[in-house]
C-alpha cells in the first residue's frame, strides 16, 4: 500500500516552490514578478489591433498617430473665400538625394490634391489608393470625385483597418483640398483612426497642436481671406509654429482656387514673393 504524504507537507513544498520562483524572477529582472506588469498598463492590449483595453483605448491606433509625428514634419492648410491652400515642410534627409523626388504633396485628380504626413512608404500607398478611389468614382458616376466624398471614403477604409487582426493602421494623416462646384472651396482631413472632417483651417504633423492654436487666433484677425491672404496666412502660421525663417526650398505650397480649379504647386519664385510680402508686413 502506497503511503501518501500528509497535505501539510504538500502545501509547504508548493509554497517553497512559489518562493523559489519569485526569488529567481527577482534576481533575473531586479523586480518582483507582481511588479513587472502593473495594473492599468497597456500590457497585452497593444499586441492586437482588435482588442480594446479596459479603459476603452486601441493602442495600435494611437501608435499610428504617433508615427505621423515621428517624421518631424508639419503641414498647415487654410480654406479661403475663393481658394484653398496647403503648406508643408520639405526636408531632404540625405544630400545625395535629388530634392525633386522628395515631396509630401500629391495630385489625386485634376481638381483634388492633398498633403500626406507620416511614414513615407505608407504615404505613397495612401496616395495611390486615393487616386484609385477617385478614378473609380468618376468612372462609376461620370463626374469628378468631390473632396468630401473622397475624404469620407478614405475614412471608411482606414476604419476597416482597425477591425481586422491581419491588418495594421496606415501611419499617415492627410489634408485634402479642392473646389466643389456646389459648395466652393473644400478642406478635409483624415487620420489613422478613420475620422474624416471638414475644416476652415487645420494642421497635421509634429507640431499640429501649436499650429492649430495660432490658426484659431489669426483667423479672427483676418476677416477677408483673399487668395494672397490665404496663402500668406498658411505660410506665416507654419513659420511661427516652427519658430524659424522659412526659405522657398524648405516648404511646398499646394493651391486650388476658383480662377484655377486645377491642383498645382507654387514655384520657388512665387513662394519667395509671398515670403517677402510676409516679412514686409510684419
Describe this structure in words.
This protein is of the alpha+beta class and about 280 residues long. It contains eight helices and ten strands.
Beta-strand segment tally: 10
With strands numbered from the N-terminus, the spatial order across the biggest sheet is 8-1-2-9-10
Provide a count of the helices.
8
Estimated helix fraction: 40-55%
- How far is the N terminus from the C terminus? 101 Å
Query: What is the chain-wise order of helices and strands?
Result: HHHEEEEHHEEEEHHEEH
Kindly state the mean pLDDT as a whole number? 85
Label the overall shape: globular
Uncertain segments of ≥5 residues (pLDDT<50)?
A: 5-40
What percent of residues are in strands? 15-25%
Task: Tell me about the largest β-sheet.
Answer: 5 strands, antiparallel
Question: What would you report as the Rg, rounded to the nearest angstrom?
Answer: 26 Å
Question: Which descriptors apply to this entry?
Answer:
282 residues; alpha+beta; 5-stranded antiparallel beta sheet
Question: What's a concise summary of this model?
Answer:
The protein is of the alpha+beta class and 282 residues long. It is 42% helix and 20% strand.
List the helices and strands and how they pair.
Elements: H1 7-29, H2 33-36, H3 59-70, E1 74-79, E2 83-89, E3 105-107, E4 112-118, H4 120-141, H5 147-160, E5 172-180, E6 184-190, E7 196-198, E8 201-205, H6 208-221, H7 227-242, E9 251-257, E10 264-265, H8 268-281
Antiparallel strand pairs: 1-2, 1-8, 2-9, 3-4, 4-5, 5-6, 6-7, 9-10
Helix pairs in contact: 6-7, 7-8
